[in-house]
Amino acid sequence: MAVTVRVEHFDGPLDLLLQLVEREELDISRISLATVAEQFVAHVHEHPEIPPQDLVDYLVIAAKLVYMKAKLLIPSLVDEELEEGPDLETQLREYRRFLEASRQINILWETPQRMTARPIPMMMKREGFILPKGVSIESLFDAIRRVIVRLEPVHQLPKARMKRVVTIQEKIRDLLSRIAKSAKMTFREFCEGSGSRQEAVVSFLAILELTKQRHILVAQDQTFSDIRLKLHPDAPSVAPVPDTYL
Amino acid sequence: MTLDANIEAMLFASAKPLARKSLARLLEVSAADIDQAISALRERLDSTGSGLTLQEHDEQILLVTRPESAARVALVIKEEAAGELTRPSLETLTILAYRGPLTRPELEQIRGVQSALILRNLLIRGLVEEKGVGDLGQTLYGLTMECLQSLGIQKVNDLPQYEELRGHSAIQDVLKDLEKTNAE
């Protein structure tokens, strides 16, 4: 069956499915879902811009659709795993109800009728630093001299220097700023000028972290080939959250 | 002074949400007395043309300005513009408003798409917050009071078709309330 309906914009698999059913002017039922199953799969094929990490959600729905269609043809077919959870019909109906409700919420959101609570009052404090009584410049000077004397170690330890290794935070900042400038780059380019093997490892960890936090997208054509990096289209506007890579 | 007037004064002075439970403890009265006094206070504020009203979310009570006075309040209090909501944000907020608190998998079951990123954005914007831990040790998420204030609603029950969309959870709510009443 040829794809007769075009859906230009959709947010997620259920949205796509709902639009397909509605454009066909069908109610949500097992029959109507089976009818649009092929269109659904075709749409996913034709929209390579669906982020790879979201594709799995589309595949889950596609699998449910194909299963549903197969079941209409062979009623005896039962797959335990695909029977789990609410059926697609129920899920889609529920999704539609919330989609409709979200339009109401948007009206509320856009109506400039917000409520205001009292700001939590700050404790009144005197600003600035006030010297305690009896403290003078001389006494402060004496005090700091005593502290310095106490800090001096009894035996001078032999001096050695730690080799400086780049931190992952630095690499993340570096990669983000470079990728923001050139939009695309490869892992090899990113590692150019790395002083050591450790630095290359840190660079790689930075890429993993940024991928996890969805700042960048990575692709590799074949095993051991260069890794292509580009900015995630929906990258969060905030800087990567530091505590997750401590 | 009546209990409801005292509660009004406490809510005004504290400027932050107070739980029904802590009001009962502080005022050394029963939970039923608190419930009754809060109803009386709400009734008084809403029927006598006060510029204030009560907001309630997750058993927390807060004294807020009435939504109709927003334009006048804005003359004296600078509020940062809340900004638009994207469709995924709107969808997520709607589901959490009617069904919350929910865990991330529960939310994703309804949306049909992974929602970690969108939840994090809403957390950063202060519209969603963690509401404790669910049965399987997963974090529960729900709307913040600030979010309700931006929507201009006193409580989530005031949302259009609330009972209908809350669905099975509404039954659970009733059961929970019954349990609570029995326990007292």
Task: Provide a count of the helices of chain A.
Answer: 9
Order of helices and strands of chain B: HEHHEEHHEHHEEHHH
Per DSSP E runs of 2 or more residues, the count of β-strands of chain B stands at: 6
| H/E element sequence of chain A | HHHHHHHEHHEE
Assembly level = heterodimer
Spans of chain A of at least 5 consecutive residues whose pLDDT stays below 50 are: none
Q: Strand pairing plus helix content of chain A: what structural class?
A: mainly alpha
Strand residue content of chain B:
5-15%
- Report the end-to-end length of chain A measured between terminal Cα atoms: 53 Å
Roughly what is the average pLDDT of chain A, rounded to an integer? 79
Cross-sheet strand order for the largest sheet of chain B: 1-3-2
Instruction: From the alpha carbons, calculate the radius of gyration of chain B and give it in angstroms.
Output: 18 Å
Overall spatial form of chain B:
globular
Number of helices, counting only DSSP H or I runs of 4 residues or more of chain B = 10
Could you estimate the helical fraction of the residues of chain B in percent?
Answer: 55-70%
Numbering strands along the chain, what is their spatial order in the largest sheet of chain A?
Answer: 1-3-2
The proportion of residues forming helix of chain A, as a percent range, comes to 40-55%
- Profile the largest sheet of chain A: 3 strands, antiparallel
Q: Structural class of the helices, strands and pairings of chain B?
A: alpha+beta
The major pleated sheet of chain B works out as: 3 strands, antiparallel
Structure description:
Chain A is 52% helix and 5% strand. Chain A has helices at residues 12-23, 30-46, 52-73, 80-83, 88-110, 137-151, 168-182, 187-191, 197-212; strands spanning 184-186, 216-220, 227-231. A three-stranded antiparallel β-sheet of chain A has the order 1-3-2. Chain A is elongated, with a radius of gyration of 30 Å. The longest helix of chain B has 17 residues, at 31-47. Chain B is globular. Chain B has a three-stranded antiparallel β-sheet, with helices on both faces. A three-stranded antiparallel β-sheet of chain B has the order 4-6-5. The A-B interface holds A 11-14, 53-54, 57, 60-61, 85-86, 91, 94-95, 97-99, 101-102, 104-106, 108-109, 111-121, 214, 234, 236, 238 and B 12, 15-16, 53, 55, 62-68, 70-71, 73, 77, 79, 82, 85, 87-88, 90-91, 93-95, 97-98, 109-114, 117, 120-121, 124, 145, 148-153, 159-161, 165.
